[in-house]
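Reminder: ligand-aware prediction takes two inputs, not one.
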Amino acid sequence: MAQEVRGVIAPGKNEPVRVETVVIPDPGPGEAVVRIQACGVCHTDLHYKQGGINDDFPFLLGHEAAGIVETVGEGVSDVAPGDFVILNWRAVCGQCRACKRGRPWYCFDTHNAQQKMTLAGTGQELSPALGIGAFAEKTLVAAGQCTKVDPAVAPAVAGLLGCGVMAGIGAAINTGGVTRGDSVAVIGCGGVGDAAIAGAQLAGARRIIAVDIDDAKLETAARMGATHTVNSTLMDPVTAIQELTDGFGADVVIEAVGRPETYQQAFYARDLAGTVVLVGVPTPEMKLELPLLDVFGRGGALKSSWYGDCLPSRDFPMLIDLHLQGRLDLESFVTETIALDEVEKAFERMHRGDVLRSVVVF
Ligand code: APR
Ligand code: ZN
Ligand code: ZN
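Here is what comes back for the chain with adenosine-5-diphosphoribose:
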């Protein structure tokens, strides 16, 4: 029996979001209906609302979520009703070349639920943000988008691993391969950069240098585990990072802004054999100009990080366990918890830049 729930809809480009009644079909083969307990407000939700991702309005927003599996469709064996799960953007196929090579984050054949959620009354089909749509009391996903984790964790904290926090931690531990004793620099200390700092700390980095243009962000970064902070409006960050690393540059530099000047800083701030990890997403017109001799003269690696290069079934339960053991602070990322009808207000606060995460709790 299809059911009706409340959900946050972005009706059209730049229009305010509103709470509407959404129809959730019963799960079909390979699908699951999840009762959402918490869902974080991410920049990507704002980008959907602004029409910056695509024009498939109306969107059902929300994609950093945790909840309880309510019902599953035919052929679903990995999760069962009652399981506490974190949702991820897409189920991977497990069969393609990328999956078989152990790099499922590059899977060629990812999928979401096949059936559509619709608006009650009009029957209009909804596009769920990142294939999730979790600013809703319940949502329909592919069962492969659900990862079971220890239910002892608070849902508001667990949901964060579904997007931004995983992207940052994964950039450090998966893509960057930060290891004990490394010097790490993180350029851009918003939610993603701060998560990269937490990841570097978890991996045992010796020095963690936070770079930002905003002193308030640097204060938060220090609380998240940065050992040094650099305000790049006051000093050249490349020189500062070199000075803080005995003149060598950082073993791993993580760029979490997405601008040409910070890409360039990341390139030059690394040790000759160091790794640059690009997490910040540039816009299509941005270009980076580098002398080829500098590219040739530096070994190491230049990598981009895609969803923290995470394997949800491996990384979500591990990070939740580390959190429950007191070894990974995730609570600090939750600035405030809000109600479903406060998402528009949360976007305004996000714009002002004074929150790490507002999390809708149900
Ligand atoms: N140099 C250093 N820091 C900068 C600069 C700069 N030139 N310009 C902006 N910043 C800082 C901001 O002060 C802020 O602290 O970068 C940070 C960006 O943080 P958010 O806007 O909160 O973005 P966040 O959610 O952390 O995402 C960062 O990662 O996943 C991508 O799409 C995401 O490109 C975005 C990036
Ligand atoms: Zn997100
Ligand atoms: Zn695949």
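The mean pLDDT is 96. The chain has two domains: 3-162+329-361, 167-306. We will return to this case in the review session.
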